[in-house]
Amino acid sequence: MANRLQNEDSPYLQQHANNPVDWWPWCDEAFEKAQNENKAIFISIGYSSCHWCHIMEKEVFEDEECAKVLNDHFISIKVDREERPDIDKYYQEVHLLLNRRPGGWPTSIFCTPQNKPFFAGTYIPKHSRPGSIEGMGFLELAKLIATKIEEADPKLYQNAQEIESFVKNLSHPKEATVLKEDIYKNFHLQAKNNFENTYGGFSQKPKFPQASTLLTLIDMDRLYNDKTLRDMVRTTLDNMTKGGMWDLIDGGFCRYSVDEKWLVPHFEKMLYDNALMLKVFTKAYLAYGDEHYRQIALQIASFVEEFMCEEELFYSASDADSEGEEGSYFVYTYDEAYAALERAGIQNVKKALAQISISPYGNFEGDKNIVRIEKHLPKEWEKIKTVLKDLRKKRTYPFIDKKFQTSWNAMYIGALFELGAIEPLYMEKAKRSLQKLKNTLFIDAKLYHTAMPNTTPKVEAFLEDYAFLAQAYLSGYEKTFDELYLIEAQRFVNLALSDFYDKGVWYFSKGDFQTKAEVYDATYTSSVSVMIENLLSLASLLGDEKYRTFAFKTLEYNSYDLSRKPIYYPYMFNQMMRYLKEDRIVKAKTARLEKNLATLCKIRYPYTLIKSEEVESFLICGIMSCFSNVNDAKMVEAQIEKTLQG
Length: 646
Hints:
It contains 26 helices and 27 strands. By secondary structure, it is α+β, with helices and mostly antiparallel strands. It has four domains: 4-168, Glutaredoxin; 183-320 and 401-581, Alpha/alpha barrel (Glycosyltransferase), CATH 1.50.10; 330-394, no CATH class; 584-645. Helix 16 (406-420) packs parallel to helix 18 (463-480), helix 17 packs antiparallel against helix 18 and helix 20 (527-542) packs parallel to helix 23 (570-581).
C-alpha cells in the first residue's frame, strides 16, 4: 500500500511511495504528530539519482523489520535535497557539527519529538558492520533511540538543545583582511600543491571536476601568462576526456571518478556538472584555440539536448543505476562489442577494440568495459561510436529526474550563451530557453526554485536561483546586446539584495530555515561568488557604483578566510582579483559588436565586458573613464593591454 509520498511531485519522494515505511513529506502536520505522540523524528534526505540512497532504500526502507521499528516509534520524513536545498543545507551543518567532517547523501538525521537533532549520519546499513564509520547498524540504532526517547533520557535532550544552539549561532569571520593582489601567490601555491601531476585534477581519488577551480586557473593564466597554471588546466582537461567520467558514446560528464585516472565514474549525470563543464571547455577553447575543447563543448550540448531536454528546459539528473545495477547501461562485454563491430563491417575489429580499451579481461567490475581512448582514435571512430550507441539503445536508460530547477537551468543557459559565441546555433537555443525558464518559474512577480513539467511550482526561490538567473541574463546581454536582458539581470540582483543580503552577509534562505549561503565552491559554484560577479558586472555595465560597493562589502566580510585559503574559494578569489584589477568595457554599436563577437570573446584580459552603445568605432573604457578607441576589432586587445600597463 502506498504511503503519503504518492501525492508528492518530487521524483525522489515518488521513488519511496511504496516503501513499507509510513513516510511523511516535510510538513507541519508531521511535526505536530511527533510532538503530540511523543515520538522521535527520523529525517532522511537524498535525491533521485543518488546511488547510495538506492542502496539504503533496498537494505533499510524496503525491509519490513526496519519499517516496523520506524512506524511504531518514529515519525519518518523524506526530503528531496534538490527540491528543498534549504533543509538539506541546515542538516548538512548539523552533520558537520556532530561528526567533524562533511556529510553527503543519503543524510540520516534523528531528532527529538520537538524536532531538535541529536544524531546525524549518511548511509547506514541495516546491521552493524565491523569498522563502519557510522558505528551501529540502522536497526540497532533506531531501537536504542526509541528507548531513550520513551525514557526521556535527560542527556539526549540536553545534547539536542546544545546542538540546536550551535547551529543557529551564526559564525562571523575573525577580522577583515586587506584585499591585495599578493593573495594570488597563495592561490598559485595551493593549486600547485593540490594538483595531481599524472592525470590532472586536484585530489587523488575520488576526483570531481572542480569546474570553479578550472575556470579560475584559465583566467589567472590569461592574466599572468602562467605556463604552470596552463599545464594544470590542459593536463586535467586532456585526461578527463579520454573516457570514463566523460562518456565517449553518448557525451556528457558523470558526477565524479572513483579512481585517479578519470576512468571509473559514479555514473549519474547532473545538469549542473554539464553546465559548468560546458563553460569550462568553451572558455578553454577561446583561451587556447584547441579544437578538441570546442568539440567536447559541442558534444556536451548535444548530450543535454538529446537526453535531458523537454520543451526548451532541462532535467536535473539521470541515475547511475538501471535495472538495479550501477553502470549497466554504459558498459560493454568484449564479446558483444566484437560481434556488433564485426556485423557493422569494421576493419580489424580486434585492433579497434584495443584502441578503445575493450578487452576480454575488462576494466570495470570483472569482464565489463568502459570505453576509453588512451592515445589515438580508431580510423573508423564515428562508425564505431554509432554501433556502440545502437547497442545501448537496446538497454534500459537510467531513471531521469525530470524536474526543472531554476538555478541549474539558468547555469546551463548561461553556458549556452557562452557557446553561442563560437557556434551561433546555440545562441538562439539559449534565448528560447531563457524565455521559457522565466515563463515557467517566475509567476506573478515571484521566482520559484523548482517544478515538474506541466505542474505549478510550490517552493519559492533561494539565493542560488537569483544568482544564476541574473548571471544567465548578463551572459545573454553580452552575447546578444538585448537591453531587456540587462534590465532583467538588474531586477533579479535587486530582489536578491532585498531578500538575502545583510551587511556583507548573504543568506541562502530565509524561510523555514534561515541559513547563511556557502562561500566556498562545493558541489558547484558558490551562489555568493556568483552574486559578486553579477554585482561587478552591473556596476561596470550600468555605471552604478552602489553595486560595486555591495561586491566589496561581501569580499571584505569573507576576506580573512579568502586571503588564507583561496583554493577553497576559487570563484570568489577570481572576483576579488577582478575587483582589484578592474574591468575593461568595450563599447560599440550593436551591429559592429555582433559582427566581431568571436574576436572580442578571445581577448586575453579576463575581465573584459562588452556593451552596446551608440559610439563610433570601438571605445575602450575602465570603471570611471574611457581610454581610447580603435576601428578594427583585432586592435582592441592591444589597446586594453596598454591601459593595463599605464
